[in-house]
Structures are given as C-alpha cells and as structure tokens.
Amino acid sequence: MADKRKFLICYDIVDSKRLRRAHRLLSDIAMSVQYSVFEAELSNAELQQLQEKLMPCIDSEADKLTIYRLFKTNAKIDLAVHDDDELLYI
Amino acid sequence: MADKRKFLICYDIVDSKRLRRAHRLLSDIAMSVQYSVFEAELSNAELQQLQEKLMPCIDSEADKLTIYRLFKTNAKIDLAVHDDDELLYI
C-alpha cells in the first residue's frame, strides 16, 4: 500500500458556492479540525488528485488555500482541550 | 541563539473580543497566512510563552486553537499562487 503522509489543508474562500464545493470535497477524504481547516493522510497520488480537484474551487485573486505537510506524531497542541496550567511540548 | 522551529497556529474563536485579543497577540510574533491562520518561528521558551498568553483568549467549550509543528522547508503548497496545470510536490 502506498506510503501515506499527513497534511493540513486550510483555506479562505470568498465565494459561498466555491466554499461549499471545497468543503464537500475535503469532507470526503479528510478530518475537519475547525472551520476551513482539515487534516488528511494522503499518498503522493492522492495529494495530486486533491490538488486537481481543488484548483477549480479557487479564485487565485480572491481566495487562499494552503496545504502543509505535517509530522506524523507529536506535532500538535490543542489549546482548548488540555488543563490551563499544563503547557505542552511538541 | 536558541534553536527556533516552525509552527502553524490556527483558531476558531467565537467571541469577538477574545478573537481580537488572540489576533493582536499573534500579529506581534507571527506571519498571517490567511484569516485565523498564522505561521511562526519559535524557540521552546517562546512556544511556552505563547501558550500562556493565548490560554486566556480561549473558551475551551466554544473555541478551538491548534498549534502544529511544521517542517522547516519544502512543506507547503499555496494552491492560489501557482499555475493551474502545475501540480506541486512536497
């Protein structure tokens, strides 16, 4: 099975129709972290397909869509979840 | 000089007063990538200070704020910037 890597996809899409389309597309293959931010595990081929599908959703003048590669483990702090006095290290 | 690492900070903050406070705080030390998403290079001490400052801005019931550690290089695709037919690899 192709090696999968972890990615974060975040976007600012102005037009509501394009926004819904991107959101629907991502909801099928990724986990919603917060509004307009998704985490996904993708092979290289899946990453290319995702780019091809998302490109028509983006107006390069008005919108932003960034894909970040993430570390697989120990690379995330969720500030809303842990106790107030416990600072986290990643 | 302390070794700095790259982080992504993204948030969903419901209350406008808390939202402005977090945005102001982050604008001082990080680069705005898009609405409610910032990139920052931080030492461990700076990461701890940032958590301490951001915690009062977060209502753990209503809000989300996630800090991701990022790779330093070759780890980002900006779909709105490059040519339509050019798929990027990271």
Automatic annotation (TrEMBL), chains A, B:
Molecular-function annotations in GO: hydrolase activity; metal ion binding; RNA endonuclease activity
Binding site for Mg(2+): 12
CDD domains xrefs: Cas2_I_II_III
Catalytic activity, EC: 3.1.-.-
Top enzyme class: hydrolase
Superkingdom of the organism of origin: Bacteria
Keyword tags: Antiviral defense, Endonuclease, Hydrolase, Magnesium, Metal-binding, Nuclease
GO biological processes: defense response to virus; maintenance of CRISPR repeat elements
Statement: the UniProt record of this protein carries the keyword Cell membrane: no
Cofactor(s) in the UniProt record: Mg(2+)
SUPFAM superfamilies on file: TTP0101/SSO1404-like
Database matches in NCBIfam families: cas2 (TIGR01573)
Oligomer and partners: Homodimer, forms a heterotetramer with a Cas1 homodimer.
Protein family per UniProt: Belongs to the CRISPR-associated endoribonuclease Cas2 protein family.
Protein function: CRISPR (clustered regularly interspaced short palindromic repeat), is an adaptive immune system that provides protection against mobile genetic elements (viruses, transposable elements and conjugative plasmids). CRISPR clusters contain sequences complementary to antecedent mobile elements and target invading nucleic acids. CRISPR clusters are transcribed and processed into CRISPR RNA (crRNA). Functions as a ssRNA-specific endoribonuclease. Involved in the integration of spacer DNA into the CRISPR cassette.
Name the UniProt record assigns to this protein: CRISPR-associated endoribonuclease Cas2
